[in-house]
Amino acid sequence: xxxxxxxxxxxxxxxxxxxxxxxxxxxxxxxxxxxxxxxxxxxxxxxxxxxxxxxxxxxxxxxxxxxxxxxxxxxxxxxxxxxxxxxxxxxxxxxxxxxxxxxxxxxxxxxxxxxxxxxxxxxxxxxxxxxxxxxxxxxxxxxxxxxxxxxxxxxxxxxxxxxxxxxxxxxxxxxxxxxxxxxxxxxxxxxxxxxxxxxxxxxxxxxxxxxxxxxxxxxxxxxxxxxxxxxxxxxxxxxxxxxxxxxxxxxxxxxxxxxxxxxxxxxxxxxxxxxxxxxxxxxxxxxxxxxxxxxxxxxxxxxxxxxxxxxxxxxxxxxxxxxxxxxxxxxxxxxxxxxxxxxxxxxxxxxxxxxxxxxxxxxxxxxxxxxxxxxxxxxxxxxxxxxxxxxxxxxxxxxxxxxxxxxxxxxxxxxxxxxxxxxxxxxxxxxxxxxxxxxxxxxxxxxxxxxxxxxxxxxxxx
Length: 462
Description:
40% of the residues lie in helices and 12% in strands. The protein has 462 residues and is α/β, with parallel strands linked by helices. The mean pLDDT is 82.
């Protein structure tokens, strides 16, 4: 099959449905690109499959995947055959791996997160990267539910929350196979995946009043990066739509597939899906499809794209009110050097709920810069005064630093001659920048932030 076979792909139909918030993306491992020190940009789960086999040392693989390499699901299956139900070992491996691997800048996840009309995501991977990306891109909250056959999550949703999705006030991620960090038994193997899909299909048939299932059935679905074998992809699409394939010819609920079909031995799946009303884009790669989708939305519906000015900053500057002049000076210098920082007077607008906006910004900015000074020390419980707002921000930031889900860097900046060190920040490297000006160790701070901006691998928990 050639790329030109996609010439009749109904882009305008898809874009119109997107603009009306009538499309739910179903995304898989083909969209998860990460940057590694030894191999550059790679797909996350094939990379993890190789690392897992090296780490766990399961027996030799008798059957490689369709592209000559073992898939992550196959590697885990072999391990669990030899170590029955040792899901905890798999979880520990993944959680530790996720701490040191981060999505490539401006990759597929970031581009999808910037399309405002996508509010509900069906996710088929086990990491927290989609959640992290949405939280760092969007101003409004992101809800996450995790589903496996033993831990059902869809029925726990408040039906009223769907009004917030339509109003653009919430995002929802439904991790259909669970999460490595938050589920006891994620669906790691093909057997687990089959059991999860069967359980979901039964649930959809029985719980007809479930609002989540109603929304799923009354929307068009956009499958991207799922990378399943032919037979499993057909079964998965059939379950997600909860309609037989003859019904799927209904243009009202058209399904769109922008997947990488190079993994399949022939065009049978493409012909099958097209025969039953699906719009199939024969993508040279999942990343390329998302790039084109983003470009098309940006050109035809620019109001549906989160622009750069709407994105959270790279660094959040936190300070006591007495240090406002120095904090503003530091923020201005960094912005002049092309580094977007979050500073309250610039980023809080009339009518904003201040606490909510600040917590959101702290969560979204990967770098937190507390301003250390004599004034900051004076107005803390340690200084004998009541705890002030800047200390609450510092506690929030430290909590995010230690939660294991949101990698970030904390860089305390000293602006005067104080020798005080805040108790939670003692292990971090302090920089001295007198008055927040281009002096002292300002260049060191700037270079550190530039490194983080261009290389997210710099974000590591210590």
